[in-house]
């Protein structure tokens, strides 16, 4: 049976419900942002069928299985929303520089210097690359709107810039107050890229196991004396 370290480092290990939901999100924009469901509205399918045949479906094993999967997805989505809220407050709105990834993007946030860099990850399919580029264009458009709103309020935005070149978007907002405001603006518009909580948990488990292993092979002088 594989240990935690092996599972965390093995990309072929069994995917969790949340990871599958993100990977299978039919909305390209929300999938690029790392969301398990469509939040922007453009990827929602129509509902239909009403209650016709509802009672018959209840006796269908496939229907029961789908219900169970739906409940599981709801739990995973709730977990994602909670993790996203914690991530924004503890990471993106903190003074430390951070690097993280979604399925399609890599992100670097440096709040103190006012730099937010979002890159399309290499090795994507042509479709995924196009989805990611469109996502960057959408964020650039939101930056322009955000900047115009501040200018209308009398805020000086001369040094606020957003440069989109090839597969990279570089945003510069040299004021922590307005940097935070832009992060919250993206979050409100469901355009803030966030990491997958399940993969973050695996990464933490892997790092913890590696640190434990390192300590086992590098005993402290005190522990060596105690063993003697």
Written overview of the protein:
Helix content is 54%, strand content 11%. It is an alpha+beta fold and 228 residues long. Residues 1-12 and 44-68 have low confidence and may be disordered. Strands 1-2-3-5-4 form a five-stranded antiparallel β-sheet, covered by helices on one side. The two termini are 35 Å apart. Strand 4 and strand 5 form a beta hairpin. The longest helix has 32 residues, at 61-92. The protein has one domain (16-39, 60-210). It is globular and about 55 Å long.
Q: TL;DR of this structure?
A:
By secondary structure, the chain is α+β, with helices and mostly antiparallel strands.
Topology:
Elements: H1 4-9, H2 17-23, H3 28-33, H4 54-58, H5 61-92, E1 98-101, E2 105-110, E3 115-120, H6 126-152, E4 161-165, E5 168-172, H7 176-188, H8 197-217, H9 221-227
Antiparallel strand pairs: 1-2, 2-3, 3-5, 4-5
pLDDT under 50 segments (min length 5)? Answer: 1-12, 44-68
The shape is globular
Number of domains: 1
Structural class: alpha+beta
Fraction in helix: 40-55%
Q: Largest beta sheet, briefly? A: 5 strands, antiparallel
Record keyword descriptors for this entry.
single chain; alpha+beta; 5-stranded antiparallel sheet; 11% strand
């Amino acid at each position: 049976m594989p240990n935690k370290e092996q599972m965390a480092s093995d990309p072929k290990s069994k995917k969790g419900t949340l990871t599958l939901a993100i990977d299978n999100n039919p909305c390209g924009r929300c999938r690029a942002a790392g969301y398990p469901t469509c939040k922007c509205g453009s990827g929602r399918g129509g509902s239909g069928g009403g209650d016709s045949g509802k009672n018959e479906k209840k006796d269908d094993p496939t229907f029961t299985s789908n219900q169970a999967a739906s409940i599981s997805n709801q739990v995973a989505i709730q977990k994602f929303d909670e993790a996203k809220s914690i991530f924004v407050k503890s990471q993106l709105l903190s003074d430390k520089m951070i690097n993280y990834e979604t399925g399609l993007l890599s992100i670097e946030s440096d709040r103190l210097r006012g730099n937010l860099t979002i890159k399309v990850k290499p090795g994507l399919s042509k479709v995924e690359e196009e989805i990611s580029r469109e996502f960057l264009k959408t964020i650039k458009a939101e930056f322009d709107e955000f900047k115009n709103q501040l200018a209308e309020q009398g805020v000086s935005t001369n040094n606020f810039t957003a440069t989109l070149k090839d597969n990279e978007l570089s945003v510069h907002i040299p004021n922590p107050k307005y940097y935070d405001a832009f992060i919250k603006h993206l979050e409100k518009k469901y355009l803030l890229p966030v990491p997958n909580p399940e993969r973050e948990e695996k990464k933490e488990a892997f790092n913890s196991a590696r640190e434990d292993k390192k300590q086992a092979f590098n005993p402290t002088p005190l522990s060596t004396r105690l063993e003697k």
